[in-house]
Amino acid sequence: MKQSINTEALDAAVGTLRTSSSNLNAAFEKVSRHTSTLGSCWQSGAGSKAETTLYQLSKANEDRDAVLQNYILVLTQVVEQGYLMAEEANTSLADYFK
Q: What b/e string do you get for 55-67 counting C-beta neighbours within 10 Å, with b at 16 or more?
């Protein structure tokens, strides 16, 4: 049974992951900018808690982004390139037995 990887679908998935990551980062950056403009409005306990929570969400987004970038790297460099190299080697070996 022949196994194969649809590299076009893999490229499309990687593109979607990159776009989604970029959109999430832009949304977090926008929230961060708006939060920082509130400055002295965070004078209450609730405001302080909201500011702390937003900071924690921003930090979690950085961690999420790092994981996603590593996942994209694995898909593009290990899975896709590894598959293409293996296919090339298999084809080359098969040519010796023709």
A: eeeeeebeeeeee
Tokens of 7: 């590299």
Backbone angles phi, psi at 37, to 5 degrees: -75, -15
Range(s) of the domain holding residue 32: 7-96
Burial (CB count <10 Å: 0-12, 13-18, 19+), residue 98: exposed
Give the pair of three-digit tokens for residue 59: 């930090």
Say how many domains are in the chain: 1
Q: What is the mean pLDDT of each run of 10 residues along the chain (98 residues)?
A: 70 92 93 77 76 86 92 80 69 73
| pLDDT at res. 22 | 95
Residue 1 lies in a domain: no
* Token pair belonging to 5: 């990887």
